[in-house]
Each structure stands twice: as C-alpha cells, then as structure tokens.
Amino acid sequence: MKCPGCWKMLTVAMCMALVACLQAQELQGHVSVILLGATGDLAKKYLWQGLFQLYLDEVGKGYSFSFHGAALTSTKQGQEFITKVLESLSCPEDMVPRRCAELRGQFQQLSQYRRLRTNEDYMALSKDIEAQLEHKGLREAGRVFYFSVPPFAYAGIARSINSSCRPGPGAWLRVVLEKPFGHDHLSAQQLATELGSFFQEEEMYRVDHYLGKQAVAQILPFRDQNRQALDGLWNRHHVERVEIIMKETVDAGGRTSFYEEYGVIRDVLQNHLTEVLTLVAMELPYNVSSSEAVLQHKLQAFRALRGLQKGSAVLGQYQAYGEQVRREQQKPDSFHSLTPTFAGILVHVDNLRWEGVPFFLMSGKAMDERVGYVRILFRNQAYCAQNEKRWVADQSQCLPRQIVFYIGHGELGSPAVLVSRNLFRPSLPSESWKEVEGRPGLHLFGRPLSDYYAYSPVREQDAYSVLMSHIFHGRKDSFITTENLLASWVFWTPLLDSLAHEVPRLYPGGAESGHLLDFEFSGTQLRFSRQQLEQLVPGPGSAPKPSDFQVLRAKYRESPLISAWPEELIAKLADDIEATAVRAVRRFGEFHLALSGGSSPVPLLQQLATRHYGFPWAHTHLWLVDERCVPLRDPESNFQGLQAHLLQHVRVPHYNVHPMPVHLHQRLCAEEDRGAQMYASEISALVTNSSFDLVLLGMGTDGHTASLFPQSPAGLEGTQPVVLTRSPSKPHQRMSLSLPLINRARKVAVLVMGRLKREITMLVSRVGHEPKKWPISGVLPSSGQLVWYMDYEAFLG
Ligand code: BG6
C-alpha cells in the first residue's frame, strides 16, 4: 500500500462505524420474536423463512434481534427440528453466497427453541429476555408473538402473555394471529371479545396472507400512483365487471376435518377474496400511506356491500370429496357431505361509484389450473372504422381494455400487473417493479401479452416475508382489524346460513369439469350456465315445471281469476300492469299505480324492474296502498321494500313517487299530525277523481287487505279516503287507503300466493259482502274492474 497513513485512517473509520452501529442499536433497541407453533407446517414452509428475510432486511439498521421458536414439543426434539429448518433457509437470488452464509449463521445463532406450555414457562421466557437485555446493555424495543397454533389454544396463550410476558414500559407488544377467526359472525365476535380482554386493538395483527401477496399489496399504491388516469375510469360508467378469482388444482384431501367445518366460502372467500374486493372497491384515501385512513375507507366499502341472498351463489363439490371425507373421518357409506369446494358469488356494491357493476368472486379446489387474479374489465364504447386486421394494440379503442392484478401462478407463473395498451401507460415504482420480457405465443385474458403494459416484481417475495416486514414496521393496514373482521362476517353469515342445506353441484375436477362450473348472472341472481344432464333429460315421473302448465282462466267471486304456477303468474301480472300503464299513458299522459307492501309483491316488483323495458316509468306515479308506522328507511317500511326491489332499478321521476306521510314532526302516525288527510289531499290534487288507474292488493290469512283488518273501526266504509288503523301484528299502527277509495279505481288486482292462503281463499270464495268480518270481501270497484291473480297453491292447495 502506497499510503502509510491509510491503514490507520481505515481502522479509525471502521471503529467509528462500529461505534455508530452500536449507538444505533442502542437507539432503536432490541426486538424479541417468539414464534409459537415453531415446529408446525406453516412455520416450516413460510414463517422461519419470513423471519430470516426480516433479519436480512433489517440487520445493520439499528435493531438487535433474538428469535425464540416455541412449541409444546420437548426441547431436544424442538431444537433438532429448528436446526434442520434453519439450515434450509434461502437468501435472495442477488445475494452473493458468502454473504448469505454469513448472515444465515448469524440468524442461526440468534434463534433458539424453547418449550412453552405453562404460565411459568412464559414467566421464565420474560425473565430470560430481561436478563439478556441487561447483560448486553440493550434497551427493549418490543416483542412479537406469532401465533401459529390452532384457535382453541389462543385464549390460554393470550392469558399467559398478558399476565407474564408483556415487555416493560416504553416497549411495544405485537401479537400476530392466523385464521380461522371464527366460523360465523357470532363465533368471530366471541373470539374477538376474548382476545380483546388480553390485548389492545393496536397490539393485534390478524394475518390474511393475501394482503402480503405482491400483486394484492400493489392495488392501492397502483391506484394512488395512477390517480390521474384512473380517476375518470374507476367507476360504473366505465367498468363492465370485476372478477376476483382464486383457483387451485389441489383438493382438500388430508385436511377434510378442517374443511368439512369451513368449506370454500369460509376458507377463501370470506377472507382473501373479500379483502381484495375491498381494495378494489374502496374510495381511495387522500393519503394511502395512512393506515388509519385505509382501514376506515375499507370499512366504508364493507358498509356499501349489498346483502347477499341464496340466489347470489352457485356451489360445487368435486366428486372425490365425499369419499375422502368418509375415509379420513371414518364416516359410514351413507354419509353425504354438503360442504362446497367451489363457489361463485355475485356481489354488488351499492354506492354511486359501483352501482350496477357485477363483482364476481370465485374459488375452487380441484380446478383445471392454479391461478389467482383480479381483473377489471372496462366497457367498450368505441366503434372502429378500420378492419380488425389494422387495429393497433396501443391505439385501437375496440380491443378489450382491462387492468389485471395477477396474484400468481397460472400461465404467467409470477405476480404481475397488466394494463391494456389502449388504456394508458401505468406508473409503477421502478425499484420494485420491472417490465415483463416478451413471451411470444403467450395469451392472457384473450389477448397476447404484447397487448399489455406488463410489470412483475424485481424481486419476487413470499407473502409471509412481506407481512413480517409490515408487522415489524407496524403497518396495520396490511392486517385485519376487529371492526373489519366483524364487518366481513356480517356480510357473509346470512348467506352461509341460507346455504347450509344447499346441495352443491358435483364436478369431476381438473380439465374434465368442462363447462359444468361456468356461471352467469341475470339481475341479482347467479346460476350455472349449463343445466345438469339429469335435468336436461327428465325421466318418467319427474317433477312438472311451471311451463308444463297453461295459465288457467276462471271466475272467483264473480270476477275474472287468473291462476298459474308462481313464476308464470307473476309474469302474467307484470305484463298486464305494463299493458294497463301503456294504455293509460297513451290516453291520459300519466299512469297512477298504488302498490301494497309485504312479501307477495316482491317478485312482481323484481320482474317489473328487470324485465319490462317498455314500461312508461317516466310517466308513472307510484302510490302506497298502505304503510307501517315506522320511519321510511326502516326495513319494515313498505316504502323501503319498494325502494329496494323497484325504485333503485328504474327511472321514476322523484316528484312522481308518493310515500305515505307516516313520519311527521318527529313522530309516527299521530292523529294530530293529520298525515292521512295530507295523503288524501295529495291524491285528490294529482289523481283525476281520486281514481287510481290500478291498485294492487293482497289478501291476508284473516281476510284483511291493504291495512284494513277485520272489525276495523275506520276505512271499511265512510268518506275518509285515507285512514289510520291497527294491525293485530307488529308494528300495530298503520296507514291505509280506505275501501271506498280503493273501489274508485279503474282496475284492482288482488295477488294471492302460497299454500298458507288456501283456507282463506276457500272461505272468501263462499262469503258475500261482509267487509267487517273479511275486509277483502268489500273490494268491488264501483265502475272499474277487479281481477284475482292466484298461484296454484293458493287456489288449489
Ligand atoms: C389458505 C386456505 O388460506 O389459502 C387454503 O386455507 C388455500 O385452503 C390457501 O389452499 C391458498 O393460498 P395460496 O397462497 O397458495 O394461494
């Protein structure tokens, strides 16, 4: 060396660096990570590697670490296990092997096994950590407890940590929890309450490992960095549909005891896919790096989800599943499982951004490929004048336009973000995402890869490694808070309950399933696209279908009666209403329709909302036949039913909608508020002669109609057009059109459905005009027409 003073200078510099490093360690402090369940499968496959990655990322940045692998196994066995796992840890590809070996050696030195069973064991652990800190003169920064144990063990461990193993003042505690977090809303709430008695909310990190998948973790940053381009696109005017998909080739063999209790909806949709859904659907916070803002916006997205119904789902089960369950759980041959291993769900988000956009969620075991993605498909509003051959990917607006967050596997084989070239060139952080190299011949979502701007991570990282880093840095937005967890269960539990006895469609699995699991939607309903074979070829004696019957025309109480199976009947009534409406608008320029509440008209309203494109809604006035005395937004309110099943889907001008004024002066149906008189005045002001074009009524099992009940002191006769009445069932107070007003209508239709109505139908067919006993018998339009619509069950029993 030519410079004699150099050695000295170098030595001084190194010493200074070392001192700085030691000072930094003192500055940041010591972190103890305790991995509970350290000898389990998850730990072996992902968690130790995740901890090692954490060490690689953080070493030299001012923290010191110790890693405690813990389980119930004896110390000797546990240590042997851990030694083996630690030897197999890998470093990122770009790290030179010598450096890797050195760091792995350090990590091995810092990692130890200990048995943790009793409360005393936890006390001893705490003492050891304190002794170590004291011995090395370190300040404690915090403790991470990673629960990789079954949920039944949570409470005991939580109690011990809380009572005997919390860090000292000034240091943080983070407990990391693995799913399942309950089985439904109630059990999730119980578990949350129990954990809440030991830990603060900010101490709990509930893992959903999908939030650590690189493509998923990129959704919000992508939306943020491309705000300008996306602002006008990310909404119902441009998005045609969203698909959130997770397909697996593996089946549930070997874990049927878990799977039998959970099934695919609880295992994958309630957590992973729902989390992804909220990241796509939520309003983008101004500051996406604020955990608090992200979590709040997520919660709002949950609140905007429309409730699911049985018809929102299709279920399947791969054929071998039943046999696997019988074998693994020693069930008799007669045992048949109803657990779904495949589910497709149609979700709607009821807000201005997403109204009407279908979100498909789908997951299945034993599928033809392993792949996960979120695909946002945009509407195509262009017409391209040149021949298709001349369409250029980044210029033609006629080629499909989509953004895909490719979670992994599949034909691409790695996570990616794809943006159709005819949308915009996206901006992604160049230090972590790079453009994918061309792969001639590779097609994704119907287009060659070259049609997309395609990016993949510079360094592929396992989800658990990403999450370890987020735990360490306290990034709570990558985890499930109690509020979010419960919101998700509130959304899924009613559907799960309604599907509990549903028989899933059997599928052979793999490529052999063909098109058997394809599904499609119509309105709010989802159904398999293909009928199952046995349904296509009905054998002798198979159940009759509605279309096998003609609509029956007869007389009932001397008025026309139309009877059919429910579906046909509703279709016929909807057609008749539309025809009446079209006629009225042609003659008078408007149509006045008064509708009853309750459950019978619901399918009718749905039919009108989804199948009647020629209906003159712009000229229709909607009135209420009766109302319960509750606020209009109450689920019990008849108006609320009208809103949910009809108004939100059609375009009736606001000033043509006439709810009953049951809620005045902050009180409900008070005589002094004269709500009934107000409604009568509104009718007389707008409806010629107070004569509705059509009044739709129902009939109760006691013979009531509208809210006119047997022996009602008001509304059965007299001059009052609108009256306050009392119902024998809750809510008791009602407002109702009176019989005299109903009888002024040009047409009255009475809809009666279901077996429960059979008895009253028979009875009323025989009685005369006795409205006091059976108010329905007082319905007889003075110059209009009365038509009865009854399904076969109500009419024939
Ligand atoms: C788990 C489910 O949460 O996710 C498994 O319990 C599923 O059933 C797994 O196989 C899929 O995760 P990944 O990371 O392989 O897509």
Automatic annotation (TrEMBL):
Chief localization: endoplasmic reticulum
Record field: catalytic activity: D-galactose 6-phosphate + NAD(+) = 6-phospho-D-galactono-1,5-lactone + NADH + H(+); 6-phospho-D-glucono-1,5-lactone + H2O = 6-phospho-D-gluconate + H(+); 2-deoxy-D-glucose 6-phosphate + NAD(+) = 2-deoxy-6-phospho-D-glucono-1,5-lactone + NADH + H(+); D-glucose + NAD(+) = D-glucono-1,5-lactone + NADH + H(+)
Enzyme Commission number(s): 1.1.1.363, 1.1.1.47, 3.1.1.31
Pfam families linked: G6PD_C, G6PD_N, Glucosamine_iso
Family stated for the protein in its record: In the C-terminal section; belongs to the glucosamine/galactosamine-6-phosphate isomerase family. 6-phosphogluconolactonase subfamily.
NCBIfam families, sorted: pgl (TIGR01198)
Assembly notes: Homodimer.
The protein's name in its UniProt record: GDH/6PGL endoplasmic bifunctional protein
Lineage start: Eukaryota, Metazoa, Chordata, Craniata, Vertebrata
Gene that produces this protein: H6PD
